């Protein structure tokens, strides 16, 4: 099933067709603009939920679950056309979250049978049996959504399922291929965004002076009398630098695509790499390399604040010193959508709240990492929130 999704499909006509369809119907500037309202609605819901959570717990809050559900709701809206209230539990959201979590867990587990193939028939870690159990559940879930869409008649496509169903001729996809592509968008678009937001908030809690500078910028550009709009984001240059610095120190996808292969026998650093070898780029190592970055372990957003006359550093794949969305043919097609979502949501969360350590005696933040498909905080961030603007809960 998964080899029919964009990220797993080998280079060829099928992969190119999928990239073209997704680029036009999901990731184009016009489509990103079209989904602005949905991002604003979800941002407001997040603010209300956080304000409630912190007022009932003496200010203490764990934001991870909320951010993950917000990100999933956002993808469910763009891909499946489904809208859910963040404040309430929904069986369908919980079911899909469980499937995404299980998928992440399976992809992030070191599978001994990849290295010792003779072990595979014993499936010692139970990975194969968990995969066999996950695939029919994903199939059932996504096929149900596809068949609901088939039952409705619409004049023009309003979500990505409609788009895939409307394809004709050589572009037409079979149902199993549609399931693979739809599931991939939900799967990839949810955690990357949520993981990055949690890292940014963690850094803001740890570096209060930098958070103050972001707050000052927000007060200057937006002012406290209104909420942030997406159109404000272009003027938030310091916040943009903060996000780039977090992408450098905590890239959510530290190992780039596993779809790159050596196409000829080659020698790298004196080692022979035969044609056909899977080549994985370690972006985390490049982004922490003292030969590339001054004070690589320090959190210094200023390094990304462009001086007068300088060209702004792009993190979208043209500069290989920092390419957290990859680069070249396999570059992340969702990079602009992902970055737009993260920047707007983070601007809102920081405009509405002060993010503080839960205890005034211990202001450290546990920055331990856990590598699954994304590299996330090993332990959920605990914070104390103070409202910066009056919010009615
Ligand atoms: C902060 C958000 C995100 C980050 C950091 C991120 C990161 C990445 C990275 C590092 C790759 C591999 C690129 C390479 O090897 O050159 C990738 C691929 C991919 N990403 Fe993202 N991503 C994000 C958001 C999204 C979103 C929102 C979607 C879709 C809704 C998405 C869909 C994909 C797909 C389909 C691929 C596979 C592309 C291919 O192999 O042709 N990503 N992403």
UniProtKB/TrEMBL annotation:
<dbReference type="InterPro" id="IPR051996">
    <property type="entry name" value="Cytochrome_P450_78A"/>
</dbReference>
<dbReference type="InterPro" id="IPR036396">
    <property type="entry name" value="Cyt_P450_sf"/>
</dbReference>
<keyword id="KW-0479">Metal-binding</keyword>
<keyword id="KW-0560">Oxidoreductase</keyword>
<dbReference type="InterPro" id="IPR001128">
    <property type="entry name" value="Cyt_P450"/>
</dbReference>
<comment type="similarity">
    <text>Belongs to the cytochrome P450 family.</text>
</comment>
<protein>
    <submittedName>
        <fullName>Uncharacterized protein</fullName>
    </submittedName>
</protein>
<dbReference type="InterPro" id="IPR017972">
    <property type="entry name" value="Cyt_P450_CS"/>
</dbReference>
<keyword id="KW-0503">Monooxygenase</keyword>
<keyword id="KW-0408">Iron</keyword>
<dbReference type="InterPro" id="IPR002401">
    <property type="entry name" value="Cyt_P450_E_grp-I"/>
</dbReference>
<dbReference type="Pfam" id="PF00067">
    <property type="entry name" value="p450"/>
</dbReference>
<keyword id="KW-0349">Heme</keyword>
């Amino acid at each position: 099933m998964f080899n029919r999704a964009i990220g797993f499909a080998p280079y060829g006509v099928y992969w190119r067709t999928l990239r073209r369809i997704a680029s036009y119907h999901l990731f184009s500037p016009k489509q990103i603009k079209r989904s602005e309202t949905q991002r604003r609605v979800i941002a407001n819901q997040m603010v209300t939920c956080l304000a409630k959570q912190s007022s009932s717990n003496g200010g203490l809050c764990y934001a991870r679950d909320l951010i993950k559900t917000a990100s999933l709701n956002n993808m469910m809206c763009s891909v499946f056309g489904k809208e859910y209230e963040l404040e309430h539990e929904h069986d369908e959201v919980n079911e899909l979250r469980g499937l995404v979590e299980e998928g992440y867990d399976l992809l992030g587990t070191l599978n001994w049978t990849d290295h010792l193939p003779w072990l595979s028939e014993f499936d010692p870690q139970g990975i194969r049996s968990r995969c066999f159990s996950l695939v029919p559940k994903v199939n059932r879930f996504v096929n149900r959504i596809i068949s609901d869409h088939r039952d409705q008649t619409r004049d023009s496509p309003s979500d990505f399922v409609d788009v895939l169903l409307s394809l004709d001729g050589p572009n037409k996809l079979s149902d199993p291929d549609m399931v693979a592509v739809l599931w991939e968008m939900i799967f990839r678009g949810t955690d990357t965004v949520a993981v990055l937001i949690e890292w940014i908030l963690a850094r803001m809690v740890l570096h209060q002076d930098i958070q103050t500078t972001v707050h000052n910028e927000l007060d200057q550009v937006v002012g406290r009398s209104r909420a942030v709009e997406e159109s404000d984001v272009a003027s938030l240059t310091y916040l943009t630098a903060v996000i780039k610095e977090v992408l450098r120190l905590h890239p959510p996808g530290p190992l780039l695509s596993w779809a790159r292969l050596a196409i000829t026998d080659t020698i790298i650093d004196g080692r022979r790499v035969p044609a056909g070898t899977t080549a994985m780029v370690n972006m985390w190592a490049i982004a922490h390399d003292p030969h590339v970055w001054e004070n690589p372990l320090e959190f210094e957003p200023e390094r990304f604040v462009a001086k007068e006359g300088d060209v702004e550093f792009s993190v979208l794949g043209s500069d290989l010193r920092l390419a957290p969305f990859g680069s070249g043919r396999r570059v992340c097609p969702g990079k602009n959508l992902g970055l737009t979502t993260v920047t707007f949501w983070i601007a809102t969360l920081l405009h509405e709240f002060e993010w503080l350590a839960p205890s005034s005696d211990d202001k450290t933040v546990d920055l331990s990492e856990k590598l699954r498909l994304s590299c996330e905080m090993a332990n959920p961030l605990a914070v104390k929130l103070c409202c910066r603007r009056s919010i009615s809960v």
